[in-house]
Design goal:
Elements lengths: L2 E4 L8 H12 L5 E3 L6 H11 L3 E4 L10 H5 L1 H21 L3 E7 L13 E3 L4 E3 L16 H14 L5 E6 L2 E2 L8 H6 L3 E2 L3 E2 L2 E2 H13 L4 E4 L6 E2 H11 L7 E2 L2 H6 L13 H10 L6 H15 L6
Parallel strand pairs: 1-2, 1-3, 3-4, 4-7, 7-12, 8-11, 9-14
Antiparallel strand pairs: 5-6, 10-13
Helix pairs in contact: 1-7, 2-4, 4-5, 8-11
């Protein structure tokens, strides 16, 4: 395995590319973290011909700073990277028979009448009676320009480029307080909406990403931990493990959307296909309500916090 790891266009590597490079090197792999902009075809071709990788792991993309609202005012830049760049890279790899594992997003769906949001069952202590979006579901969320661009590319890639693996990541969670981690983002808010969502724990999913690339899996996979967790549950555990003085308030989705330029996606992705793949490759894939405790335990240890 001789992969190229592509990171964010705004810095040398995204949070996922940084962790990915570390994991690959620990596995004894030769890895190059490229700084080439994906939309520059001549540069991409030159980079691929220079390195001659067996795999390309694409972690690049524009999400905006400090959040996806940025994409509303920078539509051309967003298209240049998320659409033109991603398709350009897939095509350049296709012409050279290189496997391309594209870390995409699942924020292209939103609960609706056909796929309703879950309800909390206080007796079973779990979210129930909700709908799930499968790999075959068509994107139904157009509330943000970021999600629109990602939805377009999701559908193009699923119908072309047989060398591409598309992984629908959602709300990535890391073991540290990286500003790109969902936990860090939500802990900065004084008010949050309490909605159950699929989320992706990097500790669990990046090793699976590597194994899927090694196995040259292709097509679309929903790439989250099984199950859903609500924003309140995430913050309650943050208070329990990290900061006992932390406080927050809830407000409605309507109130939430009024303060943002772009709406936000909320959904559960069906992980049946991914769970079968993880089992085949021998990679653990715990339920999000189990995995989140491990996240906070590792985070507390990293922060030098003693937990009970």
């Amino acid at each position: 395995l001789s992969p190229v790891c592509l990171g964010s266009l705004r810095r040398a590597a995204s949070i996922n590319a940084e962790y990915m490079g570390d994991l690959l090197r620990k596995d004894g792999q030769m890895v190059t973290c490229s700084k080439v902009r994906m939309q520059n075809r001549i540069d991409v071709c030159a980079e691929l011909d220079r390195i001659r990788p067996t795999h390309v792991l694409n972690c690049a993309g524009v999400t905006g700073r400090p959040n996806v609202d940025w994409c509303e005012d920078n539509r051309e830049t967003t298209v240049r990277c998320n659409v033109i760049g991603t398709l350009n890279l897939a095509d350049c790899c296709f012409q050279r028979d290189i496997h391309c594992a594209n870390l995409a997003t699942g924020c292209i769906f939103h609960y609706d009448e056909e796929t309703p949001m879950h309800k909390w069952d206080p007796k079973r202590l779990e979210w129930v009676a909700g709908g799930k979006f499968t790999e075959e579901s068509l994107p139904n969320f157009t509330g943000s320009w970021y999600s629109k661009t990602k939805g377009y590319v999701d559908q193009i890639l699923r119908s072309s480029f047989p060398n591409v693996l598309t992984l629908r990541l959602r709300m990535p969670i890391s073991d540290d307080l990286s500003p790109r981690s969902f936990i860090t983002k939500i802990s900065k808010y004084t008010k949050v909406v309490n909605i159950p969502n699929s989320m992706s724990v990097i500790h669990d999913l990046l090793p699976l990403y590597i194994e899927m690339a090694k196995a040259k899996k292709t097509g679309v996979y929903n790439f989250t931990n099984p199950g859903v967790i609500s924003h309140n549950q995430v913050l309650d555990l943050y208070k329990q493990y990290i900061d006992p003085t932390f406080e927050y308030q809830n407000f409605s989705l309507e109130e939430h959307d009024k303060i943002l330029k772009a709406a936000r996606s909320n959904n559960e992705l069906d992980t049946t296909k991914l769970e079968e793949c993880a089992k085949e490759l021998g990679v653990p894939l715990p339920h999000i309500l189990e995995s989140i405790h491990g996240v906070y335990q590792r985070m507390a240890k990293n922060q030098g916090i003693t937990t009970k």
